[in-house]
From TrEMBL:
Its EC number is 2.3.1.48. Residues 12-173 form the Histone acetyl transferase HAT1 N-terminal domain. GO terms for cellular component: chromosome, telomeric region; nucleus. InterPro entries: Acyl_CoA_acyltransferase (IPR016181), HAT1_C (IPR048776), Hat1_N (IPR019467), Hat1_N_sf (IPR037113), Hist_AcTrfase_B-typ_cat-su (IPR017380), Hist_AcTrfase_HAT1_C (IPR013523). It comes from Frankliniella fusca. This is Histone acetyltransferase type B catalytic subunit.
Length: 407
């Protein structure tokens, strides 16, 4: 049966709309819409179309206590589809679908969940406290945040992480749960520290996972794998502080070659660029008067030795900082900048041209037709111009954030 048509359409629900999350500190939060936040995606749980079949006025509630992350799940709806009216097609079994992702033992009784809030004051973060900072949003009094470093040797933390990692399904595309039997994982967990009824409490704000890859001969290359600041805590500078904390933890270790990132999203790349620009602006080889001389091996060496930044990211930060130092009202200054970036962007095409020339020497006419997919000079120039414009827009985004932080 085609459940996308006819009467069945009334029982198709967008799963992003139906889902709602809370980090509950006090029972009153349960009735406060301002404490509710929504997923950015749900295809990793409810399929590519992000739809749920079989319900009218559906609300899927996933509530967590703010510190311990005791989990409550509830499915509320006005009407459930009768299979006899839809050729035997059953409504999606939401509790079963979610149970496959949630840690066993989650609650379905709201009164039991509310009672569990009484134990929140006993919760203390796992691991080692490695950073403390204050930040605020919209002029509100600054809140205190603490970041803890954890590993898989703590079995209680591993159980806690089973509840924590469920958030990545809704906010990190292509995410998967990690193997906590592997001792090379490191976890950087950020909490808001606050007072409630005179007691010190903790609320989860975000976390990051880092895998320590082996690098020959006796080195490691940490790779940031998952990085998440939960929606109630976004746009407060917490992400930047979390990334700085990861950097500071590994930069002091002689065995670390450089710090890399696994498939960064655009938002994370902006964050990474911003923090790296902050740090590299302080390096001698990245001072404004040296940027017009071009990217050099000295720049790559200094970024790696002092900040553990790899050459590719160092080159990207160089381009951002050079754009920042470029007078775009000066036609010649701006032209030289564009040419510098386009030369780098054009490098793959130059390799492609050399390959075609070599092929012409050894292939017959029919075989050469297989290379016709390679872009013409005109197509390449159009593509190069488009790539440059997109890149400059990305760089400008970082430059504007740098300017705001310095104002």
């Amino acid at each position: 049966m085609d459940i996308a048509g006819g009467e069945a359409q009334a029982f198709l629900v967008n799963s992003n709309d139906a889902l709602e999350f809370k980090l509950v500190r006090h029972p009153k939060d349960l009735k406060d819409d301002e404490t509710t936040f929504k997923p950015e995606m749900s295809h990793q749980v409810f399929g590519d179309n992000e739809t749920i079949f079989g319900y009218r006025d559906l609300r899927v509630k996933l509530y967590y206590t703010a510190g311990k992350l005791v989990t409550y799940m509830n499915v509320d709806y006005k009407e459930k589809a009768d299979p006899e009216k839809f050729e035997g097609v059953e409504a999606d079994d939401i509790p079963r679908i979610l149970a496959d992702k949630l840690q066993p033992g989650f609650l379905t009784n709201l009164d039991t969940f509310v009672t569990s809030l009484n134990k929140e004051s006993k919760f203390k973060p796992y691991g080692e406290l490695i950073n403390l900072f204050k930040t605020s949003k919209d002029g509100i009094e600054p809140s205190t945040y603490e970041i803890y470093l954890c590993d898989t040797s703590d079995s209680e933390f591993v159980k806690y992480h089973e509840r924590l990692q469920t958030f990545i399904l809704w906010y990190i595309d292509g995410s998967s749960f990690i193997d906590t039997d592997d001792s090379n994982w490191r976890f950087f967990v950020c909490y808001e520290k606050y007072k409630l009824d005179g007691k010190t409490m903790y609320a989860i704000a975000g976390y990051a996972t880092v895998y320590q890859y082996y690098a020959y001969p006796k080195n490691i290359r940490p790779r940031i794998s998952q990085f998440l600041v939960l929606p109630p805590f976004q746009r407060q500078g917490i992400g930047a502080n979390l990334l700085r904390t990861i950097y500071n933890n590994f930069r002091g270790q002689d065995e670390v070659l450089d710090i890399t990132v696994e498939d960064p999203s655009q938002d994370f790349q902006y964050l990474r660029d911003y923090v790296d620009c902050e740090n590299m602006m302080k390096l001698d080889s990245y001072q404004a008067h040296k940027l017009k001389d071009g990217f050099s091996e000295e720049m790559a060496r200094e970024a790696r030795s002092k900040l553990k930044i790899n050459k590719r990211q160092a080159r990207r930060v160089y381009e951002i900082l050079r754009l920042k130092a470029t007078n775009r009202k000066d036609k010649e200054d701006y032209k030289q900048y564009r040419l510098n970036i386009k030369r780098r962007l054009n490098t793959p095409f130059q390799r492609e041209k050399k390959t075609i020339l070599r092929l012409k020497c050894v292939l017959d006419e029919d075989e050469l037709k297989a290379t016709e997919h390679l872009k013409s000079q005109e197509q390449r120039l159009e593509n190069l111009d488009r790539q440059y414009k997109e890149l400059e827009e990305d760089y400008q985004h970082v430059i504007e954030r740098l300017a705001a932080s310095l104002s």
